[in-house]
Amino acid sequence: MNEVIKTIMNHRSIRRYEDRPLTEEQIRTIVEAAQSASTSSYIQAYTIIGVKDPAKKKKLAELAGNQPYVEKNGHLLIFCADLHRHDLIAEMEEADLTISLESTEKFMVAVVDAALAAQNAAIAAESMGLGICYIGGLRNNLEEVTKLLNTPRRVLPLFGMTIGYPLHESSKKPRLPLEHVYHEEEYEQDEQRLKEQLKEYNETVQSYYIERTGGKREDTWTGQMAQMLSHPRRMYMKEFVEKKGFNKQ
After folding, report:
1. Tell me, what's the pLDDT at 3?
2. Exposed/middle/buried for 160, CB within 10 Å: 0-12, 13-18, 19+?
3. What is the pLDDT of residue 249?
4. Residue 126, pLDDT score
5. At what angle do helices 221-229 and 191-213 cross, to 10 degrees?
6. What is the mean pLDDT of each run of 10 residues along the chain (249 residues)?
7. Cα 228 to Cα 15, 142, 180, 212, 231, distances in angstroms
8. What is the reported pLDDT for 212?
9. Please, are residues 119 and 127 in contact by the beta-carbon 8 Å criterion?
10. Closest CA to 75 of 145, 136, 135, 164
């Protein structure tokens, strides 16, 4: 197993960091690594906003659900779906691109492009001995986030990423069994088999929580998912995404 694969396989979310900012060289390297990710048809439909201002970090931490590590880290990146520059392209090339830019397809392209770039950034940061944590909580209140970041039409903040020097090494959460995720030739539809795999996975996850918390938690994965998905969240999203000029066609 080479060092790249070791880095990827050793991933875990880090939520406590040293009070130590990243250097400009580190930031640039991480962003350049992000830019090296694949991009659909060379569209490059994303932007990364770096946040250093302590007051802005503090506000973003509040908007993300009072997550302290959004405020206290070495650097904060916000990954955005971005088709704004393609509006500028339309002006420069005197072309009407509205239908394409407002299509569900190009919205998906922008989201996928941003996610691919972010994962490259994460691997780059971790390879440098840094820790990271994705922050989906920014979508709790995108109206306020977009105001704070001053994002124009057709730019949609998707998630954040905290980066820094880990104060501790958290335990690695067990993932679904490979057989449940990887199917060959076609989708495995033996539901009884899939349920049996989920039951086995529940036992693994439950053991993880019992050991991690000294018996204070004994969650199963299916129980967690059922509880979480029973309470729909961020149901404003469809209207907000359309208001920002995405996914209208």
Report:
1. 94
2. buried
3. 86
4. 98
5. 100
6. 94 96 98 98 98 98 97 98 98 98 98 98 98 98 98 98 92 92 95 95 94 90 96 96 95
7. 21, 21, 21, 21, 6
8. 87
9. no
10. 164
Cα 40 to its chain centre, rounded Å, is 18
Residue type for position 93: E
User: What is the identity of the amino acid at 202?
Assistant: N
DSSP the chain: --HHHHHHHT--B---B-S-PPPHHHHHHHHHHHHTS--GGG---EEEEEE--HHHHHHHHHHTTS-HHHHSSSEEEEEEEE-HHHHHHHHHHT---HHHHTSHHHHHHHHHHHHHHHHHHHHHHHHTT-EEEEEGGGGGGHHHHHHHHT--TTEEEEEEEEEE-BSS-PPPPPPPPHHHH--SSS----HHHHHHHHHHHHHHHHHHHHHHHTTS----HHHHHHHHHTS---TTHHHHHHHTT-S--
Angle separating helix axes 142-149 and 54-63, nearest 10 degrees: 170
* Cβ atoms of 218 and 209 closer than 8 Å: yes
